[in-house]
Amino acid sequence: MSSIIQLLPDHVANQIAAGEVVQRPASVVKELLENAVDAKATDIKLIIKDAGKSLVQVIDNGVGMTVTDARLCFERHATSKIRQAEDLFSLATKGFRGEALASIAAIAHMEMKTKQEQDELGTHIIIEGSKFVSQEVAVLPKGTSFAVKNLFFNIPARRNFLKSDTVEFRHVMDEFQRVALAHPNIHFSFYHNGSELYNLPSSGYRQRIVGIMSGKTNEKLVPVNEDTEIINVQGFVCKPEFAKKNRGEQFFFVNDRFIKSGYLHHAVMAAYEGLLKDGCQPSYFLYLQVPPNTIDINIHPTKTEIKFDDEQALYAILRASIKHSLGQFNVAPVLDFDRDANLDTPYHYKDVEAEIPTIQVDGTFNPFTDDKTNQHYTKSGSGSGSYSSGSSSSGSSYSGYSKRVEPTASWESLYVGLDTENPESVESFPFAFENEEVTSSLFNDDEVEQASQKTYQIHKKYIVSPIKSGMIIVDQQRAHQRILYEQFLLNMTVNQASSQQLLFPLDLFYSSSEMKLIEELKPSLETTGFVFEEAKSDHIVISGIPVNITESEVSIVIEQLLSDLQDGIPANSYSQNDTIAKSMAKSLAVKTGSYLTEKEQDNLVNGLFACKDPNISPFQKPTFITMRVEDIDKKFAL
Ligand code: ADP
Ligand code: MG
């Protein structure tokens, strides 16, 4: 029998290798940028079209290649960066596998122009799907330009697998930011579909971070500096009060290479212990230098993970140095030269007269009628307790009250037989009353009291309410999410949402990738009641907000939205509205751990059962459970 094993032809092997190296346009961006950095360029231009799907081009002014190297660089395992296995332990370059160019050339149309400084003429090569199409001598500037067109042209399955332009662009942006942050001394520029997104002159770390993030970043940063035998830590962490809900701006660089490390992230979080609000994440930009022989960067094909020899020591040093920096900033704010102007009284407030507090009175509120037929909503600005009902009219009722909720029939029926002991309803009073203490004696007939308080909050988490057949236990957070979700969705699709005009428009700053998302979301956000006075370059000015949120909640809502949409904005407007409604419900709902007054508990339960779909939260979790008397009896029978 003849042998059946064969060596794969090179172009097939390259295509297979490409699968590991090139997943999407962003992978090409990463490899080409890193090659340009390795070539000692001081000026690097990134040009992409259609999120990199049609073109990724990187132009550098680095050392360039000789004619022979220009041809050789497309061979697999062709690298100028290591000669022998030992070199792997003293790597100071990004690349070393000699795989990237061979892999990219196997799955795209590629054009390369390169010239070394001392040469008169350079080399111009075209290669498509691993096949050399042409090689010419050309007049060129010093350096190298790679243009990669029509990625995956010969692997339609991979091409179809690419995500929307928004998602792919985001990945490209991430790679660009990582390389540009790691090398502030290099001038980077970035163009997408003909427009310039970044032009970052050679600078120091701080300016580079500010250049990439946004204008307001500077005042948020606290420097970190620590030099020990095994590690040098430099960089910046953000002041605790600027921590965000999403994890977007967190960067570790080890020997100028972006890496991900859950372990080191944990060390940073440990340094912030006790300083952050629940669920908030600080931004950080940390540059670690360690001796190359104490790390192994070879364990991950795309090299964003890394293994350190002495992880525990690094953890301790990192945590201590950040703690120290944060401590200095907190203890001695007078010495902080980057004083936060946000904390000053804005000029316009000084000239504004203090507002006289007004009390709004609900003429229809009657303390003697059953709560479920006479709702009394208060709109308090104080975070946890503030929510509105599920009533569709709440959008236009910011005066302090919203119309009562019409509970659904099924909800009413739960209570049948329970409210017979209620005090008689009294015709509407023209004024609102303070609720009088009902119980004046220990020996009061507690039947009455029992019937009038239908809800109890336990563990600041659940609302328990008796019903005819037993009781229900409502999860307060999920129930409120459901109420808000339906309300937002209704406002966005059916009702004309009303907004509250802000006395002083809010000026909020975002990074350019976040701004791109916000611009796309703008029309949908407007249907919820947001009014944008301006939305350009790195900031938005908001002059109106939906009636059911407070001014201080605006940035939380937008942060949450940006983090929920990291993976792209849904294509059609229905799912876009749905995502926005869900995200806003998530950020605005009362949380587990919030104390609710009786009234609030009541409103919550009523609001929930006025919903179209009260059984599940917008995230498909149960909102309440029922316990029948028989179930309880059974437990006692044991
Ligand atoms: P690696 O970077 O792992 O060595 P690559 O396939 O990315 O492998 O590149 C192969 C070789 O081509 C590099 O080692 C380098 O010598 C050369 N090269 C690639 N890009 C450039 C560039 N922009 N300027 C100069 N030389 C380059
Ligand atoms: Mg490389």
Topology of this structure?
Elements: H1 10-21, H2 25-38, E1 43-49, E2 55-60, H3 67-72, H4 100-106, E3 109-115, E4 122-128, E5 131-138, E6 143-149, H5 156-161, H6 165-182, E7 187-192, E8 195-200, H7 205-212, E9 221-227, E10 232-238, E11 250-254, E12 257-259, H8 262-271, E13 284-289, E14 295-296, E15 307-308, H9 311-331, H10 347-350, H11 409-415, H12 446-452, E16 456-458, E17 462-467, E18 470-475, H13 476-493, E19 499-509, H14 512-528, E20 531-536, E21 539-546, H15 554-564, H16 573-588, H17 598-609, E22 624-628, H18 629-637
Parallel strand pairs: 1-7, 11-13
Antiparallel strand pairs: 1-2, 2-6, 3-4, 3-6, 4-5, 7-8, 9-10, 10-13, 11-12, 14-15, 16-17, 17-18, 18-22, 19-21, 20-21
The structure holds adenosine-5'-diphosphate (ADP) and magnesium ion.
Provide a compact summary of the structure:
The protein has 638 residues and is α+β, with helices and mostly antiparallel strands.
Write up this protein.
With 638 residues, this protein is α+β, with helices and mostly antiparallel strands. It folds into four domains: 10-200, Heat Shock Protein 90; 205-328, 2-Layer Sandwich (Ribosomal Protein S5, domain 2); 355-407, no CATH class; 457-626, MutL, C-terminal domain, regulatory subdomain (Ribosomal Protein S8, Chain: A, domain 1, 2-Layer Sandwich). It has 18 helices and 22 strands. The strands form five sheets. An eight-stranded mixed β-sheet has the order 5-4-3-6-2-1-7-8. Strands 9-10-13-11-12 form a five-stranded mixed β-sheet, sandwiched between helices. Bound molecules: adenosine-5'-diphosphate and magnesium ion. The site of adenosine-5'-diphosphate has 22 residues, from helix 2 and helix 4. One of its GO terms (molecular function) is ATP binding. Residues 363-399 are annotated as: Disordered. Residues 385-399 have a biased composition (Low complexity).
